[in-house]
Every structure is written in structure tokens, then in C-alpha cells.
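Hi,

Apologies if this is the wrong queue. I'm a grad student, and the batch job for Membrane protein from Terrihabitans soli produced an output file that my downstream script rejects. I'm not sure whether the problem is my script or the file. Here is the sequence I used:
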Amino acid sequence: MSHTHRFEHAANKVAHLAGRPMTFILCCAVVLGWAVSGPIFGFSDTWQLIINTGTTIVTFLMVFLIQNTQNRDGVAIQTKLDELIRAGQGRNRFVGIERLTEDELEELRDKCEKRALAELKRSEKRVRDKNKKTARTTARAITARS
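Support response: The file is valid. Your script probably expects a header line. Output copied below for reference.
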């Protein structure tokens, strides 16, 4: 397993756990324990530094882990939406693509964009062909009346 894949797996796990109610309760308990211990330590600078350092480190690490998860989820959602727009209905193979790596998601998105462009060109050609046919029919009708 590559370093990127391991990081993405860990980021998903941590982001999932961070959003759980039990994690919030645990954090509240830590803060409450810290606050209750204030009188024991005389509200010293070291006592304050412990909570400041701890929260700073956790916040710093969580920003990167959650951002990684959000980036991949955003690309996955956009790709799914692109596919729904392109096809008019979803395909089962797009279910769960948020678990793919960034490279795999980019590759999938590129394929969707290429298919959409090819379909747009075919559609535009059909419209042009229909317009030409309509113009010829109209011209014949006008000529026949004359």
C-alpha cells in the first residue's frame, strides 16, 4: 500500500471518528478535567500552556486530515453530478467513488468530460443536419408554390 493510500485511509478514519458524538463528549470531558484541575495547579502558566498546546496541535493536524477528505469528496460529488447530467441517469459504477484515490478520481473525471464532449459534438451535428433538412423542405415548399 502506498503512502498516499495509507494517508487517505487514515484521513477518512480520523474524519469519520471526529464527527461522532462520543468524540465530542470525550473532548468536553478533557476540557472539563483540565478546568477542574486549575485550582490544583494554581492556574499556573504551565496549566494554561497544556490546554493551549494540546488544542493547537489537534487543530493543526485536523485541518489537513479533514481538508484531504473534503477535497476527495468534492471531486467525487462533482464527478457523480457530471455523470448524471451527461447520461440523464446515474450508473451503478459511480456509487462509492469517493473512496478512490485522487489520481483515480481525476482519471474518471477526465473520461466523463471526454464522453460528454463527444456526445455534445454528436448532438450538435444532429441539430445541424436537422436544420439543413428543414431548410431544404421549406425551400422545396416555397418553390412548389411559385
